[in-house]
Every structure is written in structure tokens, then in C-alpha cells.
Amino acid sequence: MNKLFRPQTYEELTSILESQTEKYLYYSGGTEVMSDYRQGKIKEKQWIDIKHLPGMMEQSPETIGACVFLNQLTQPAMLAEVAQGIADHTIRNHLTIGGNVCGKLPFREIVLPLLALDAEISIFSDGEIIRVPLKERFDKFLKLQPGELVTGFHFDRTERPYHYKRHTITGSIDYPLMTYLAVRTEQGYFVGLSGYGSIPQFAWFENWDVEEILNSFKAVSNDRGSADYRKKLLEIELEKGAPNEAV
Ligand SMILES: Cc1cc2nc3c(=O)[nH]c(=O)nc-3n(C[C@H](O)[C@H](O)[C@H](O)COP(=O)(O)OP(=O)(O)OC[C@H]3O[C@@H](n4cnc5c(N)ncnc54)[C@H](O)[C@@H]3O)c2cc1C
Fold it and tell me: Where are the domains of the chain?
């Protein structure tokens, strides 16, 4: 029989984790979990709903809790715009920022603005909450140890110049053929891509050198489009110029 836990404190969560003899999973918005469950892909019988833990729904000037829904992300503009590109309005009322970063689907589009904003991430790990730069933990996907739980994201919400474009095949509600985000940051120009390869790709550049940027990313060929087509789309975006104008 499946069991659902709904801890209200981290002490309660710790005692639930200590009492587990079987594998368990964290449940946030539940869109991916429920879909996998219905397809018989989920073996874990113990589910832990994390939304009632302190800080999970926080929205303060510097912190966004891991269970904040994509439709609730409003500032800075680049974060809101990337969030609004994902799925449709109804689904975004259930998809959480933490779920997008931690989920199994390869797109993880929200990771792009978070990396550009040099976000830090809070992780509940071994009974305490630690805070580390997101880029230290994100390499292809978010590296979490068994039992670790993302509790929130921290960044400065100051607006920065950016360019964003989401290319799809069938219409706006589709997985991305290429999501492009370019941002002017203190460390140079950030360029992040989702859908372009099999994982999100990103890098910082000192200068806006189209050839150099283009050659830094590896395009994939799949049933959505060829690598050459993706490369051409990226070239077109890059040739529009560097994101230098204020938002
Ligand atoms: C119809 C649909 C369309 C989508 N389209 C896109 C798209 O275009 N672009 C895109 O980038 N993504 C897209 N997604 C992916 C979506 O953002 C992810 O599936 C995301 O995981 C869903 O968030 P959730 O809160 O429902 O996660 P859940 O289903 O609750 O959890 C997903 C996984 O992440 C783990 N997890 C969740 N939160 C945490 C946490 N705080 N700490 C540790 N682990 C955690 C869970 O254990 C589970 O393994 C789409 C999903 C759906 C259902």
C-alpha cells in the first residue's frame, strides 16, 4: 500500500527519513510523479509531500522556495518569461521551480535564468540546510545525494539586459527545439540553451563573438529537428546582437 507523508517541520521530516526502510520519493507539484506513477514507472511506495515544510512557498526579495509554482515567478523579467514559456497556464499552476530543476525531463528550462542570475541553492542535507552556488551542483542535471532535498533558490532580483527566444515545432505549447537565453552579467555574457542538446548547455563569454559562441555548444539531431537546423537557429539569434539594452 502507498503511504503519503506531509511533514510540517524539518524535525518531522528527519524522523520520517530515519524511520524509512524502503525507498521513498519527494513529491512537490506532483505532475511528473503522477504521470510516471500512472505509467507504472514508479516503484517507491512512500511519498513525502514537501510543500508544507517551512520556507517551501517563500517569496521574498532574495529567496524563492522550491515549491513556488511557475506561474508565481514574476521577477526578474527573464525568470518570469522563461517560466511562462513552459507548458500551459493550467499546468504551470502545478509545476514547481524545484520540480523543474530536479525532475527527470531533460529540458529544465528554469535552470537557465537561475544560472545567469548566479543563484545559490539551499539543500536540506543530513539534518541541516546548506547553501551552495547552483553552478557548483549543476552539471547536466542537479547533483543530489540520496535523501537531499532542495528547499529554495537565492538571487538578486535586479533586472539585467537579456534576450530570450523559445523555438518549438508545433506551437507555443510544446517542448523546446531550442530555448535561447542570453544575459549581460557581471561575469560577461551568459548564453544558455535548452533543447539544443540532450541536456541544458550554458557558458559565459567575455566578448560577443558569434563564431566563438556558436562553436561552444553542441547541437543534437532528433525527431524534433536536425543539428544543422538548430545550429542555424542559434546563429540567427546570436546575430541579433549582444543583450546590452536595459530591460
Ligand atoms: C505537461 C508537461 C509539460 C512540460 N513541459 C516542459 C517544458 O516545456 N520545459 C521544461 O523545462 N519542463 C517541462 N516539463 C517538466 C516539468 O517542469 C518537470 O516535470 C517538473 O519536475 C515538474 O514539477 P513538479 O513540481 O510537478 O515535480 P514533481 O512531479 O513533484 O517531482 C518531479 C521529480 O523531482 C523531484 N523533486 C521535486 N521537487 C524536489 C525538491 N525540492 N528537491 C528534490 N527533489 C525534488 C521529485 O522527487 C521527482 O523525482 C513539463 C511537464 C509536464 C507535466
Answer: 1-51, 162-239
